[in-house]
Amino acid sequence: MSALNAFHESLPSRSRRVPYSGRTSNILSGACINLQRTILLPLIELELERIASKQPLKAIDLERYQTQEPLPDSGKPSTAEDRERLADSLQKAYISYTYLDARAQNLNLLDKWGKNAWLIGNWGLENELKALERDLAETKRLIDVLTVARRRQQEDVAAEMKGLEEAWKQGVGRTLETEIAVEQLRREVLEEMRARGA
């Protein structure tokens, strides 16, 4: 799927056209560039320092593949923090188990059948990955079709939506005017009653 044809909208919206202002766009793009400089330069400097000191890149958290420390046996978790810690440990244990199980299967295939069975297993995994990628591409295509249809529907009813919005604004304005008039009338009545009572 071409990146040029992809739509990246997920929420239904009716966008309004903003009048172009060259000055505004220059200010915003300058602010964006300055923001990128302030954020990216320190990160690049840190990465260059890491490379100069010959420290390894810690891109993958290897701790989740290692055995987990058991939690103290204190019965049922009583607080939200205990439940969160238990859920985190359970998730890490599941990740570790899945990784170790797949690794054990691969090593058993390698020991039992040799390199070819292991390669065939990898081929099967590649086919499964390709099928998932096809499903993902099809889903993205359907999202793009839906987005185009939604946009067309919005353009078809744009005039009606604008008319309804204007009518709503007028209705709200009239309601506010009525409430203000009622409040003024109430004050006048109170003042008249005070004047008669005095």
Textual characterization of the structure:
This is Pre-mRNA-splicing factor SPF27. It comes from Colletotrichum liriopes. There is one protein chain. The chain is mainly α. Among the domains are: 24-57; 60-68 and 80-113; 114-156. It contains 4 helices and no strands. The radius of gyration is 32 Å and the shape is elongated. Residues 1-8 have low confidence and may be disordered.
What value does the Rg take, in angstroms? 32 Å
Order of helices and strands: HHHH
Q: Tell me the strand percentage band.
A: under 5%
Structural class: mainly alpha
The oligomerization state is single chain
Low-confidence stretches: 1-8
In helices, the fraction of residues equals over 70%
Count of alpha and pi helical runs: 4
Mean pLDDT across all residues, rounded?
80
Major beta sheet, specifics? none
- Total strand segments: 0
The coarse silhouette is elongated
Cα(first) to Cα(last) distance is 84 Å
Coiled coil: 122-149
Subcellular location: Nucleus
Region (Disordered): 63-82
InterPro entries: SPF27
